[in-house]
Backbone:
């Protein structure tokens, strides 16, 4: 059991491993900057410190965990579908590769790709979701398909 902190600095020191763990999780799964999520976690600790009532029968660390997670999720939520690119391609933001795909250079780069990558990008442009693409090509992991498509998109955009 973690010890109860006596001041805010002590609370931050005690909860830093929790903040790191959550920041790593959200960085890995949601493509956000680790340092930004760490700052959100620390802000969550500060917010919890201000609102914590020691008369409750709840440990501060348990109480603060909710605020840490909530601050990080509030940062991630607005860009969830864009960052994970889980929506169909016709909902892609302005300036993405789908809007510029008619240019000669993009078609030339597309033709350089191997047949498997071309199929994935074509399906994505037709509006298939990552889950549908993974099922169609028989991939074992949705994450691998998503990461492969995202890396191709970066390659085509550069």
Residues:
């Amino acid at each position: 059991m973690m010890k109860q902190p006596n001041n805010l600095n002590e609370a931050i020191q005690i909860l830093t491993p929790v903040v790191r763990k959550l920041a790593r999780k959200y960085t890995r799964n949601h493509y956000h900057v680790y340092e930004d999520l760490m700052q959100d976690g620390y802000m969550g600790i500060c917010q919890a410190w201000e609102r914590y009532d020691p008369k409750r029968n709840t440990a501060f660390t348990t109480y603060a965990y909710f605020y840490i997670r909530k601050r990080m999720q509030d940062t991630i939520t607005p860009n969830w579908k864009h960052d994970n690119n889980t929506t169909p391609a016709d909902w892609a933001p302005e300036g993405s590769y789908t809007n510029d795909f008619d240019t000669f250079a993009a078609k030339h780069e597309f033709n350089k790709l191997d047949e498997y990558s071309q199929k994935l990008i074509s399906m994505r442009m037709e509006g298939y979701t990552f889950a549908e693409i993974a099922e169609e090509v028989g991939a074992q992991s949705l994450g691998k398909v998503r990461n492969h498509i995202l890396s191709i998109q970066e390659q085509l955009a550069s």
Remarks:
- The chain has two domains: 8-80, 85-157.
- The CA atoms of residues 52 and 60 lie 7 Å apart.
- The two ends are 50 Å apart (CA to CA).
- Residues 95-102 have pLDDT under 50 and may be disordered.
